[in-house]
């Protein structure tokens, strides 16, 4: 049975949600942790909870390669190297392509795609040295797009293919690469969207079959820890997401469109109206953290 004990893991988006819960689970397995997030308060609290001998917290914006590299270097200096990477940092925006704030759309792409690239780029020399494993956190959205979430859908499809490319590039170094694909998980990202937009809740209600159901963070963490131990190529949470991946061509065909198209003329204008009233195209939490990214002081 593969063991994680005494491994060193780099986790981005570690302050809350899946990142924080996965970090706690890994710590219980004897893993040392390099924790990166822009949200310094809860990140520092998590590191204090886990202990200075177990976790190093570095407040950094994954959009800033130099900052990520500095965090990686500090982690390598403290723990000796990096065996595992969980490229988890990600956000979402709200609103149609016609109405979403362009700066917010760009911020989603920057965090969700460039942030993954920066994380991997900075950690890769150490991961190669230790013949480690990289888990890129994509989504069900890579296979099944939803209206009003174009930036999120695009970014998650992009990093899935980034993982596919990376896997080919590093296999001869003894490094394995996986991609994780989850349905809606009960994280701050989903909780904030539900609280902000009745249209988002309506969208979930009309998605066919289980596509609109929300899954627990614990189920996601169990799958992530199992993947990290087993160096898995694909992670699906829940398991039925694998079927959607195999049916991607059908899901994105005219046949697949039929389940959503009748609802879009009602849901999308409502979403755009609600976004306009909010005065923002993402959660209030993300807006506050964007201010930190612009002015880290």
Automatic annotation (TrEMBL):
Keyword presence, Oxidoreductase: yes
Residue span, Ketoreductase domain: 7-187
GO CC entries: membrane
Keyword RNA-binding: no
Pfam assignment, any one: adh_short
Sorted UniProt keywords: Oxidoreductase
Gene3D superfamilies: NAD(P)-binding Rossmann-like Domain
Domain of life (superkingdom): Bacteria
Any GO MF annotation of the entry: oxidoreductase activity
Entries under InterPro entries matching the protein: KR_dom, NAD(P)-bd_dom_sf, Sc_DH/Rdtase_CS, SDR_fam
Record-stated family: Belongs to the short-chain dehydrogenases/reductases (SDR) family.
PANTHER family found in the cross-reference section: DEHYDROGENASE/REDUCTASE SDR FAMILY MEMBER 7B (PTHR44196), DEHYDROGENASE_REDUCTASE SDR FAMILY MEMBER 7B (PTHR44196:SF1)
Name recorded for this polypeptide: Putative oxidoreductase
Organism in which the protein naturally occurs: Rhodococcus opacus (strain B4)
């Amino acid at each position: 049975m593969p063991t994680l004990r005494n491994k060193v893991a780099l986790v981005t988006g570690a302050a809350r949600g899946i990142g924080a819960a996965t970090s706690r689970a890994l710590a219980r397995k004897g893993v040392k942790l390099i924790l990166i997030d822009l949200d310094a308060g809860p990140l520092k609290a998590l590191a204090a909870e886990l202990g200075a001998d177990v976790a190093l917290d570095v407040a950094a914006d994954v959009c800033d390669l130099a900052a990520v590299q500095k965090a990686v270097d500090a982690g390598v200096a403290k723990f000796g190297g990096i065996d595992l990477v969980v490229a988890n940092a990600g956000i979402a925006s709200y609103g149609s392509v016609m109405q979403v704030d362009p700066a917010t759309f760009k911020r989603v792409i920057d965090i969700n795609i460039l942030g993954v690239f920066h994380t991997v780029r900075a950690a890769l020399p150490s991961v190669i040295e230790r013949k480690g494993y990289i888990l890129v956190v994509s989504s069900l959205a890579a296979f099944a797009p939803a209206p009003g979430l174009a930036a999120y859908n695009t970014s998650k499809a992009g990093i899935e293919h980034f993982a596919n490319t990376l896997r080919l590039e590093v296999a001869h170094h003894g490094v394995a690469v996986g991609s994780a694909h989850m349905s809606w998980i009960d994280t701050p990202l989903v909780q904030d969207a539900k609280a902000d937009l009745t249209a988002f809740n309506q969208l979930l209600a009309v998605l066919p079959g289980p596509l609109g159901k929300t899954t627990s963070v614990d189920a996601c963490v169990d799958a992530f820890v199992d993947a990290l131990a087993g160096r898995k190529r694909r992670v699906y949470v829940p398991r039925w997401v694998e079927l959607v991946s195999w049916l991607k061509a059908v899901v994105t065909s005219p046949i697949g469109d039929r389940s959503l198209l009748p609802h879009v003329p009602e849901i999308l204008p409502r979403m755009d109206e609600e976004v306009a009233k909010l005065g923002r195209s993402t959660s209030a939490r993300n807006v506050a953290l964007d201010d930190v990214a612009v002015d880290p002081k």
